[in-house]
Every structure is written in structure tokens, then in C-alpha cells.
Amino acid sequence: MSATPRMPTAEEVEAYRRDGVVVLRGAVPPEWLERVEPAVQRAWEGDGTADLSEMADGGAGGSGRFRAGTDHWRTDPDAKAFALESPLAGIAAALMGSRSVWLWEDSFLIKAPGTAEDTRFHQDLPYFHLTGTQLATFWAPLDVVTAQTGALRFVKGSHLWGREFTPTMFVSDDPITGAPGEAVPQIDLDGPDVMCVDMEPGDLSIHDARTLHGAGPNTSSTQWRRAVSVRYCGDDVRVAFRPGLPVSPFQVVLTEGEALSDNASTPQVWPRGA
Fold it and tell me: Which helix (H) or strand (E) holds 231?
């Protein structure tokens, strides 16, 4: 769909593996953002997202809403093209050092102007029925993102702590009932290891699924914060069903302990045409 994609440099690969997060500036060609943006709009206007503001501590307090959904690629052709055919899969292979890459899921994360809810610090891995080290979350904004509008914050190096934290409801500290793990520690937002990332459309943040991260509220009265997130898996990932977490109809066909393979649940996206 475009010219030669912008692949990570050796320094960026090193940063990803050392810090558990890296930001690639200008990595998403404009035509791919134009392709996926209508899918995000359709999800917002239809029933493709859930209202997370309703689950926040004390209820929604702002004029805006925080809405999110998953698995849009299964029903929307533009979301499917972005997850399966964009340059993201090749970047995932390079960063993770994996011969092959499989798609796990995508999600749309939308904070309208005036959204009071922050996204609590969490790891992605405890929400997945997976285990392994080669799992990466890609986050591509459709709008300019700053600390005011809900920029992502990462705890650098936390993917190497060897700890797994209990999944919560994202907008509160309430744990998912029955899910294993320890409570997320208090994070000093001004600490030396906390990285706050301002981004523009075309930029791409990629973090290890074990990296602690969160995001602030969108306190702007005019600026949206829309983002597309895609989660990819590498060679060492195995199926591991987790207590307390729902199992989607697409995951019931998976077998505990198996490696991922090219099927309707986990399509192989790299190498192309494999």
C-alpha cells in the first residue's frame, strides 16, 4: 500500500528490549491511518465499544466518555487490513526477534474531550490467555496526544521484574474476580523510570506485554484522543488459560500449552503469505 516501511533501527530494537517500550516516530504511513480511521468512527457511533466511564470509581465525573472495544478486525474490513496488512507485523518481528508473528487482538481506545477517567497502571499480559516473552502491544494515535489529552506513561524496565500483576477494570483498582497476581504498586509519576510519551499521528509506541503502563485523563475541552492498538505474538508464546478471565468464542478452540498457529483465532501475519 506504500513505499518501503520504516523499520526500527538497531538502537530502537535495543531500547525496546532494555526498557520494554520504544516509540517509532513516523512509522505509520498516512494512508494506513486514513484506512483505519473510519473503522474507529464506526465503532464509536455504533455498538463496537463499551463505556468504561461507567465503571470508574465514583462513576463518570467529566463531560466526555472513555470508550474501548476489542476484536474489531473480525468484523470490520478496514480494521482487519490495518492489523493484518500494515507494516506493524514486520516491525513486531524485528523488535521481538521472532521468525513468525501472529495476531492476538486489536482494540480501539477513545477518550473524548473532557474525559475524567485515567487508565490505571497495568500489564497487558495478565488479560491474555497466553504466556511467553514475545508479546508486543502497538499503539497508533489518530490525534495529537499530550499529557493533557491522556498520553501513555510507561515504567521502563518493568517487563524484566519477573512479577505479574492482577488485572483490574482499567479505570479503577478493582481486581477482576478470581484473576491471579499481585496488586500493582504505587507508581511515582515523576519517578526517573516513568516515561510519558507525547505522540502525533504516524508515531507508533510499542511495549512489551509485561511492561507496566497507564494513561491520564483527557482534560482538553476540544481535543479527542483516539488510538488503535494491536497485539502481536512471537515464536515462544503458548496458550495458557487464566482463571477469572472470560474466554471468547474464538478462543475456546485453543488448547492449553499449544503454540500459536495460522487459524481463524490467531492468524499468522508474518512472514507475509506464510
Answer: strand 225-233
